Amino acid sequence: MRRGEGHAHLAPFSFKVAALMLDIAFIRQNADAVRAAIKNKRVDLDLDLLLTTDKERRTLLGELEQKRARKNEIAQLISKASKEDRPTLIEEGKAVKVALEQREPAMTEVQKRFDELMLKVPSLPRPEVPIGVGEEDNVEIRKVGTVRTFDFKAKDHVELMTLHGMVNWEGPRKFAGGRSYALMGTGALLELAVTRLAVDTLVERGLTMVIPPVMVKERAMTGTGFFPLGREEAYAITADELFLVGTAEVPLVSLHADETFEASALPIRYAGISNCFRREAGAYGKDTKGLYRVHQFTKVEQVVFCVPDEEMAEKEHYQLLGNAEAILAKLEIPYRVALACTGEIGLGQTRKHEVESWMPGRNEGKGAYNETHSCSTLGDFQARRSNIRVRTADGTTAYAYTLNNTAIASPRILIPLLENHQNADGSITLPKALVPYMNGVTVLRPKA
RNA sequence: GGAGGGGUGACCGAGUGGUCGAAGGUGCUUGAUUGGAAAUCAAGUGUACUGAAAGGUACCGGGGGUUCGAAUCCCUUCCCCUCCGCCA
Prior knowledge:
This protein is α+β, with helices and mostly antiparallel strands. The chain has helices at 17-20, 24-29, 31-40, 47-80, 86-118, 157-163, 170-176, 186-204, 218-223, 249-254, 310-330, 381-386, 414-420; strands at 139-144, 167-168, 182-183, 208-210, 215-217, 235-237, 242-244, 260-262, 268-277, 296-306, 335-339, 351-359, 368-377, 389-391, 397-399, 401-410, 428-429, 443-444. It has two domains: 46-118, Helix Hairpins; 135-444, BirA Bifunctional Protein, domain 2, CATH 3.30.930. The protein contains 13 helices and 18 strands. A hairpin with an 8-residue loop joins strand 12 (351-359) and strand 13. Helix 4 packs antiparallel against helix 5 and helix 8 (186-204) packs antiparallel against helix 11. The two termini are 43 Å apart. The protein binds one RNA strand through helix 4 and helix 5.
């Protein structure tokens, strides 16, 4: 993490709106920029292969279209032709048809290869995004709140939750497998409390609450950019060809797939709550202790659709970030905001801020900031894939912009909540804002 | 799960093999009229791909088939509606 650069690092936005749009024409004309994005985002994609495939595709398309034009012409002529001329024309029509049928499989095949490659093309990171590989290259923007120094031996969340009987660790692992858990008693109540606090905060700030489906078709996964590259991460329900979502972002964005908004209808701001399911493939052995990384969790997610206007998207982005920060403030959890580097942002994200909460028990008890929220701008990446458009004042259409940010994810958020607010005797003093959601209880006491 | 009905442009809605990218209406845009507006009249008004352009191609829920030719015929699939069954 590079420090102290903060906002000074932010460069003025230098792309025109159109330049962000990754259609094949743009890719052809800006191959170098795309190549850089592929490299910096560490995407496994051979751009030259895409470009030659595109060339192949267009050549074949031209050929086919010529044949089709002739086919249409002949069909047209036959309807007007005399009895004598008909047989000849029908013969030619048949010939053209056969020629078409011979070439069409090649087109289908090329198109398929082309589409598969296109789905792997990343969006271009915005200019202010630092180039880097891993977490250590993220740039800290600011720290908020004071990290507490304990005058006693602080416990980590596993100890605390065990002490309070908040989790059944063992039972679920037997019948549901690794990374399973059951929230019990005050643990379960706390999850309901923090999610409800988050929901109320967002509703108060004008977002519309949504409880969406969590089983979705492949189209939704691809449309939001999680497939094909993140396929391994999703649970599949093969009998019905459905997938369990890893975030409500998927159904919330898909809610408007294939729609064309009137510009006046935007922005649309949603707060969705859902269970989230993640296989955590590739994270074997990582964060296996406790509730930091689990297969199933509850998340309140914010999703915004807005017109494709950079200034507007900026405003929305920082508003989403502000919403998350407001929730952390209510929970009185110290946190920091960082700008994720190119290697850490997703295929579709053009910029991502991470909000990392202070977790005293991490890093072998020395404490660490760890991600609890991530705030992303995706430009028109998802809108392209999901076919979500906006009709502008002059009657033309363009792809909408989408943004999203976590509001709260539990049980992960319970880690900083419990660890930061613990007392020497193992009791936990709840932040004031949470008390009403816990039916007036101000201090949680360990089970006797 | 069983039986039936339906999916056409921003919206309503016509269209059962060629002259249909699609009548008519609504809406919208522009112009005329008006002091201004309403009303009226006239013209225009889908999307995507491809091409330097002219143009061409594709799209009537999705996919496939029949045919020289498909919105129209056939198969299949998804979604919606009605009735029956089951059910939190």
